[in-house]
Design goal:
mainly alpha, 25 helices, 2 strands
Length: 476
């Protein structure tokens, strides 16, 4: 077996099996830096841009910090589960959702990841056509309709090739991609304050607010809440490597909940200054020709790096769910993202996509947090997480309490907010949709798990927590 396949097989096994206490090496600063590096992405910049078209600077900063931090504060306690037992997200979720239920959830994770990959790649494509125009290319490749999809798809295959090469190639790229995003953010920050000044920046008004201030604030808050909820699937990947539970929670909250907001805030300020939510337009308007060209190149490099991370994470998760499939097949599982890159339609519908993320992960967040802390009272069997015929099988592999709560949470969200038509209820203007959905799903799950179904898994009480003994060789 060559070194690439060996390193991939080792990482798949490492992601699938419980991590021993001796292997958990991440302290607070380790966890903080790696998660901030991953979190400082163009998705935060784009979300901030949307918010900046709705609110002024002071309002945008408050909404971004509040809207992103609250959902993370609500579901980050589940990091304790992954840190305690050393298991990954899609292993740990089996205790609440069941074996089949978790596999279905993996499909949702895949759809979400494909959407983010498409957004990253299409932004790369739009950056590429801007660069093409700046260097004098005037053919069809410099148009949004043809050039952006072409360069987006090309960037996807570049990212997929790097992801296919395995961990060593990805680690090498990270030394380029993460600094690129950091340099871009620092450059934007310096250019904004140098060009506008603090007082003028805070005096500017948004370019496309709703007629009602309350609706502008509520929609912007929902976008920020959706961004906060979007991290739920990724918590287990790094929390299981934390040295202790306190480190897992604090490192996750301060990285995903606080520090990564700098990208969204800079996006909002840029959108307010330029009057556009499009990051590729900010570079030229704020940085001028030379600064804009550098900014666009850094944006492209950062987006390709983020695409590599997502494709690789998707492939690793695919291998843990379908361990007998080849690595090439796992990488190819991200190919449907190309369909979303053919036209700008999906990219332009970003706010709708984030609303769907908020809806799905608000429901799941309420379920898994309530299951671990209030139903199972932090008592989970690692052995049965790996036994598809054990007590986490529930009913035909699905926990009916979770399924019913999904239906109830869905009804709650869509009664408050329709992300397709952007129709809102009166209640949405006061409490948005994602946060109420989290609590409704949580209460629903508790009632059904405790008083209606009450499976053996819901009454299980572990005598000890010992992942060293629980870890057994698993054939991959």
């Amino acid at each position: 077996m060559n070194s690439k396949n060996s390193s991939i097989a080792k990482e798949v096994a490492f992601g699938f099996l419980p991590v021993k206490k001796s292997e958990r090496t991440f302290g607070f600063w380790d966890l903080l830096f790696i998660q901030v590096g991953i979190g400082l992405s163009s998705i935060f910049i784009l979300t901030g841009g949307y918010i900046g078209t709705l609110l002024n600077a002071k309002e945008a900063i408050a909404v971004i910090l509040l809207g992103n931090a609250i959902p993370i504060l609500l579901y980050m306690p589940i990091s304790v589960f992954f840190a305690r037992y050393g298991v990954d997200t899609f292993i740990g979720f089996r205790s609440a959702l069941g074996y089949l239920g978790t596999n279905i959830t993996y499909v949702l994770f895949t759809l979400m990841t494909l959407g983010f990959i498409a957004l990253f790649c299409f932004m790369t494509g739009k950056s590429a056509i801007q660069v093409s125009e700046m260097i004098g290319i005037q053919n069809s490749l410099a148009s949004v309709g043809i050039g952006a999809p072409f360069f987006a798809i090309a960037s996807f295959f570049i990212a997929a090739f790097i992801a296919y090469k395995g961990p060593s190639a990805i680690k090498g790229l990270n030394w380029i991609g993460v600094p690129a995003i950091l340099m871009l953010l620092i450059g934007l920050l310096i250019a904004l304050f140098y060009k506008e000044g603090l007082s003028n920046l805070f005096a500017l008004q948004p370019s496309a607010p709703y007629e009602s201030k309350a609706e502008s604030v509520a929609v912007a808050l929902e976008l920020s809440v959706g961004l906060g909820f979007s991290w739920l699937f990724y918590i287990g990947q790094y929390s299981r490597l934390a040295k202790n539970e306190k480190v897992a929670f604090s490192g996750g909250f301060w990285s995903y909940g606080v520090l990564v907001n700098v990208a969204a805030i800079l996006g909002a300020l840029s959108a307010i200054v330029v009057g556009s939510l499009e990051p590729t337009e900010w570079m030229l308007a704020i940085g001028g020709v030379s600064g804009g060209l550098i900014g666009l190149i850094l944006l492209m490099v950062g987006n390709i790096s983020a695409s590599v991370f997502l494709i690789y994470s998707q492939a690793i998760s695919f291998k843990t769910i379908f361990p007998r499939q080849k690595w090439g097949t796992a990488i190819a599982a991200s190919l449907p993202a190309v369909i979303l890159m053919i036209t700008p339609a999906f990219y332009d519908a970003y706010s709708t996509f984030i609303a769907f993320v908020s809806y799905i992960l608000a429901v799941l967040g309420g379920i898994v947090v309530t299951d671990f802390f209030f139903v199972k009272k932090q008592s989970v069997s690692v052995r049965y997480l790996y036994d598809q015929y054990g007590m986490y099988k529930y009913w035909k592999g699905i926990n009916p309490s979770a399924f019913i709560s999904l239906v109830v949470g869905t009804a709650c969200y869509w009664l408050l907010y329709n992300p397709f038509t952007m129709d809102t209820s009166i209640a949405f203007l006061y409490m948005t949709a994602g946060l109420p959905t989290f609590f409704v799903s949580s209460v629903s799950y508790y009632m059904f798990a405790k008083y209606v179904f009450s499976f053996e898994a819901d009454r299980y009480q572990a005598k000890t927590v010992n992942t060293e003994q629980a870890q057994k060789p698993v054939s991959l």
